[in-house]
């Protein structure tokens, strides 16, 4: 395993947190109530904090004077390795909750494994993130139940969101060639092993929420290889605007 | 949706050994949501180790119009304060 393999592997984990954090940040000040607005923004900050730890580690691996900001702001679209699920836009509150829930269940399972990584830094970052992500999962699961078992309208909206996002769930368990190289060293996680637990937990929550588990057989993937959907460019133009317009600008 | 949610009062204990203090209020559909909202709104800068929430309607408050009869009679009874004892020098921490 070369340094570059590890760097690419970390992108596969860290970019999920960055892009979902960016999506949640877009909602700052636009939540349906003060309380849910702050909850969403808190989760965004948790995710961006985790992203920083990963990127600082990447910067130390790459050297060449690179900083965490270069990694966050100056890569091109194809160089981001996040899954398609997290880049999906904020359509409505139920959609945001569904996207969050489908990711949180995976995220917690992943970090629980990653804390046993042979790479001490990755293990430490994972361990620190577990408490935050446990809360995210609790928050989004509770809201899935509230919306699913709420009014006719909330039930319908969250069901449609789950149906729409379901096709992105399979990619979470896709192993790229690079993932396999890093997993063979005991550093990376074989995410295929998480699939069964993931769908079991998701189904339990959906059933409690009186929602139907979609029976969609067609899945989309590509984000892990850097092939993103049509929304990603817009997201990045927002995210990167400041550094692209005023290079090397600092707060 | 917020208009349909009842109001809750939030009490937070900032350290073990201290009492819960009133921190503020928020809207939530039920007690569980009130706890989660309180966690997000009032303890995000690690202000607390324990949270109580109670629906505001369950608090019975004294009426400010009755302040005269409730509180004024205590004002001229200084002998209710323990200030008339001569403390020996040996007694510390009083």
Describe the protein in words.
Chain B: InterPro entries: PaaB, PaaB_sf. Chain B: It comes from Aquimarina litoralis. Chain B: This is 1,2-phenylacetyl-CoA epoxidase subunit B. The complex is a heterodimer of chains A (about 250) and B (about 90). By secondary structure, chain A is mostly helical. Chain A has one domain (about 5-245): Ferritin, core subunit, four-helix bundle (Ferritin, Up-down Bundle), CATH 1.20.1260.10. Chain A contains ten helices and no strands. In chain A, helix 1 crosses helix 8 (about 175-185), helix 5 packs antiparallel against helix 6 (about 120-150) and helix 5 (about 95-115) packs antiparallel against helix 9. Chain A is globular, with a radius of gyration of 18 Å. In chain B, strand 1 (about 5-15) and strand 2 form a beta hairpin. With about 90 residues, chain B is an alpha+beta fold. Chain B is flat, with a radius of gyration of 20 Å. The mean pLDDT of chain B is about 90. The N and C termini of chain B lie far apart (about 55 Å). In chain B, about 20% of the residues lie in helices and about 20% in strands. Chain B has a domain at about 1-55: Ubiquitin-like (UB roll) (Roll), CATH 3.10.20.520. Chain B has a three-stranded antiparallel β-sheet with strand order 2-1-3, with helices on one face. The interface between A and B is medium-sized, with 13 and 15 residues.
